[in-house]
Design brief:
Blueprint lengths: L5 H7 L10 H9 L9 E8 L11 E5 L10 E4 L2 H9 L4 E3 L1 H8 L7 E4 L11 H4 L17 H9 L2 E5 L5 E8 L4 H17 L10 E8 L5 E2 L2 H6 L2
Parallel strand pairs: 3-4, 3-5
Antiparallel strand pairs: 1-7, 1-8, 2-6, 8-9
Helix pairs in contact: 2-7
Length: about 230
Amino acid sequence: MAKNTKRFQELLKKVEDKKNYNISEAIDTVKTLASAKFDETVEIALKLNVDPRHADQMVRGSVVLPAGTGKKVRVAVIAKDAKADEAKAAGADLVGAEEIIEDVQKGIINFDVLIATPNLMGVLGKVARVLGPKGLMPNPKTGTVTMDVAQAVNNAKSGQVNFRVDKQGNIHAGLGKVSFSKEQLLENISTFIRAINKHKPAAAKGRYVKNAALSLTMSPSISLDTQEVMDLK
């Protein structure tokens, strides 16, 4: 939403300028900012005091949100034989190997999450340049390179969120829908923040979370109390 629109200006009046909200207050406030004709996503943005150019300061991982994301997730699995059968039984939307890779090479990507068994990671090299920039390349750190494909499919379907700090030290994620109850949002947000804190690199010095904010897809952002964020363990 353009920041100079009348609707955005009206929403801005509901957010106290220069106030750092506690998480509970921020959820109450963000729920009053819903203004779109669709069920907006509740988004968190964190600015971390890390330099991801150094491997020992990379913050990357995944977490399963207790209340899910509210989004239907299409899951593809690169697997063969018994593992392919396991993936199908677990509810994967797409299961195969070479045929999925051929589709990706043609620019056809019919999935939101890609899981692969370790023995087939080699064949994915052909499409790494396509999948990498889209954040779809399977990775052991996010649990998407695994022999336990059934668990990985279940995690993806039940609300797994992957996170990775960008070059500027930012992490951004959708943590549910504005239609969720306050309790569901509180549980999801707390679970996500705990995961970020758990992944704090030993090499990170000083204040780990510089800034944190909550917003909707089309709303102003609400600044969070970074001390409360860092205290969530």
